[in-house]
Design a protein that fits this description.
Elements (H helix, E strand, L loop, with lengths): L1 E6 L4 H4 L15 H12 L4 E6 L3 H14 L3 E3 L16 H7 L1 H9 L12 H15 L7 E6 L1 H12 L6 H7 L4 E4 L11
Parallel strand pairs: 1-4, 2-3, 2-4
Antiparallel strand pairs: 1-5
């Protein structure tokens, strides 16, 4: 079984380097060209269906790519982006200036981070792990696409590829292309702190 991790379309905020969190945003100009390029790239993955986060950016991306590939797309609330609370809308520079200790922790041990007014990253990973365990069958023949916002995509990559936890923040800042992961012998990492 393969899983394609597909970033949501870029928004003006993302292009400005702002943290999205759960803020509802519309795709930036040029999103259609981005969708078409990703659809062409994913054609060979043989996706059977696409699941997406319930926000507008993820939904638009999933519906377009689903039509392009002729596969159904469905929203799952459990794929909702991590709630960044007061950090939503900040650039990384602003985050580093206003919350230096938390920013350092994001780089070193992100699963222990809890943004003010937001969701603990470790809890978000646990929520995502439960969803992936339910949807991914290592010996299955149905290949899936997951359209996710940046931080949730980075967490999914951590869970599916076994990347070190400290890579989550950096991955979330540069995830700009779909990634296809072979889940044939997948063992999702156990709960971590």
């Amino acid at each position: 079984m393969k899983v394609a991790l597909i970033p949501c379309a870029f928004s003006d905020w993302r292009q400005q380097g702002r943290l999205l969190g759960r803020v509802e945003l519309t795709p930036s100009l040029g999103a259609q060209a981005q969708y078409e390029a990703w659809g062409a790239q994913l054609r060979s993955a043989g996706l059977s269906r696409i699941f997406h986060a319930p926000d507008e950016l993820s939904r638009d991306t999933a519906l377009f790519i689903g039509r392009f590939l002729n596969v159904p797309a469905k929203a799952l609330d459990s794929l909702t982006e991590v709630d960044l609370g007061l950090w939503a809308g900040l650039t990384e520079t602003e985050l580093k200036q206003r919350y230096p200790k938390a920013h350092r922790q994001l780089l070193e041990s992100p699963l222990n981070v809890s943004p003010p007014g937001g969701e603990e990253f470790g809890a978000a990973v646990a929520r995502l792990r439960a969803t992936l365990r339910k949807r991914i069958k290592p010996n299955g023949r149905e290949h899936l696409g997951l359209v996710l916002r940046p931080l949730t995509l980075a967490m999914a990559r951590y869970l599916l590829q076994g990347a070190p936890p400290h890579s989550i923040w950096e991955t979330s800042q540069r995830a700009a292309e779909p990634i296809v992961v072979d889940c044939q012998n997948l063992l999702l990492p156990a709960e971590t702190a």
